[in-house]
Write a structure and sequence with these properties.
The chain is of the alpha/beta class. The protein has 13 helices and ten strands. Helix 5 packs parallel to helix 7 (138-146). It starts with a helix and ends with a strand.
Length: 289
């Protein structure tokens, strides 16, 4: 990669790398337990405000994030917010509760995140069984596609990460993800691994770019005071990312999001979705414009 590429990476740090306004989308169920833990810890490390979104579905539309819109549902929703707020305050984290209603979960989540100008949405992920589309969930896929900020998808059993893996293909979306991963590693004081995958079906020229891509990101991170280790592996991108994360015991995987529009957003089905479905680690999808 050229020197110009290094310069292009640097200006993207400021708006992306910092988490100052975190939104936790939760229904208070067991599936949200990991997301709740991670959201509180991220806010603690970054001195961020935790916005807790709980929802009451529009009458006749129950079954997604909350109960039907009635008195009992309102009480349960308030109890969820109060419980998480109490936990956050024990860690010195400032909290704000938000109760919204709507017909579709992704619309409520995306609209609320936009209204409060969230830097990241933290969501839980359901159990790993069934087809890939069922694993990730339609709502989660749409949130990742439509949100104007980053989205962190957290399995139920996940805990705070002790190391981070950023997978990059050299695109500007991956550059944004690398910047964010570097900031998270620096703030959390944890090791960072930079991975580029040589995919066999790609041309030889493209495969040969893997090492220069890693070197460019490492050079940038070093300039930001972040020490990282580079890795180049060969294989299917999603499988290799998950395997390397397992081998290096990476507790967080960071990927770029291709800023699609229209139907492309709705049909998220991509490398990132496959990684989310295959790993037991949280996956952060960094938003690219």
């Amino acid at each position: 990669m050229t020197t110009q590429g290094d310069e292009a990476l640097a200006p993207q740090l400021s708006p992306i790398g910092r988490f100052e306004n975190v939104m936790l989308a939760t229904d208070g169920s067991e599936w949200s337990a990991g997301a709740e833990r991670i959201a509180v810890q991220v806010c603690k490390e970054h001195g961020a405000v935790l916005n807790i979104l709980s929802a009451i579905s529009t009458p006749g539309e129950a079954g997604w994030m909350g109960k039907p819109n009635d008195i009992e549902a309102a009480r349960e929703t308030d109890a969820v917010i109060e419980r998480i707020t109490a936990t956050a305050k024990e860690h010195g984290v400032e909290c704000k509760g938000h109760v919204r209603s709507g017909n579709d979960p992704y619309e409520v989540i995306v609209d609320t995140a936009k209204d409060i100008q969230a830097d990241v949405i933290v969501m839980g992920r359901k159990g790993r069984r069934g087809l890939a589309r069922m694993l990730l969930g339609d709502a989660t896929a749409k949130v990742i596609g439509y949100a104007s900020c980053s989205v962190l998808v957290v399995p139920e059993t996940a805990n705070v990460w002790q190391s981070i893996l950023i997978a990059t293909d050299g695109s500007r979306f991956s550059d944004m993800a690398a910047v964010t991963a570097g900031e998270l590693a620096k703030t959390g004081g944890v090791p960072l691994f930079v991975l580029s995958v040589k995919v066999p079906v790609h041309s030889e020229r493209r495969q040969n770019e893997a090492q220069p891509i890693v070197d460019r990101v490492l050079s940038f991170l070093e300039g930001q005071g972040v020490q990282a280790r580079g890795i180049v592996e060969e294989g299917a991108a999603d499988d290799t990312i998950v395997d390397v994360a397992n081998d290096r015991k990476a507790g967080l995987i960071v990927l770029g999001n291709f800023g699609r529009t229209g139907i492309g957003r709705m049909l998220f089905g991509s490398k990132a979705e496959r990684v989310i479905n295959q790993t037991n680690s949280p996956v952060l999808i960094v938003r690219g414009g």
